[in-house]
């Protein structure tokens, strides 16, 4: 059974609908105790333009393309990661491992909408 949550898990916090980090761990542990695996819908293809997101994270276009024609997803009003940057690949690989190692997520369903080429995404 899927639990639907609209969120952006390519960040370092769990969806607030699950409560605190401890609550989220408890949810995952309870699912495991019931014989269920937990699959996180992980989105490394694009990220929100909201103030809480990664856009101009350090005052520069650290995670996104500087040219919006290369990195803006018009359908979702989101920014597309600049996979040519080491910071992006380090962040995304580290983020995937964070969910697996910190919370015990069993698998990631990788939503790659808007991604054309992941061949440059190397840890």
Q: How would you describe this structure to a colleague?
A:
This protein has 3 helices and 5 strands. With 123 residues, it is an alpha+beta fold. It has a domain at 39-110. A hairpin with a 4-residue loop joins strand 3 and strand 4 (78-80). The longest helix has 18 residues, at 86-103. The protein starts with 20 loop residues before the first helix and ends in a 13-residue tail after the last strand.
Walk me through the topology.
Elements: H1 21-33, E1 39-42, E2 46-48, H2 68-71, E3 72-73, E4 78-80, H3 86-103, E5 107-110
Parallel strand pairs: 1-5
Antiparallel strand pairs: 2-4, 3-4
Q: How many E-type strands?
A: 5
Helix/strand class: alpha+beta
Terminal Cα separation, in Å?
A: 33 Å
Helix content, binned percent: 25-40%
- Rg is 15 Å
Continuous helix count: 3
Q: Keywords, please?
A:
alpha+beta; two-stranded parallel ribbon; elongated; 123 residues; 3 helices; 3-stranded antiparallel sheet
Give a quick rundown of the structure:
The chain contains 3 helices and 5 strands; from the N terminus they run αββαββαβ. The protein is α+β, with helices and mostly antiparallel strands. InterPro entries: GH (IPR017853).
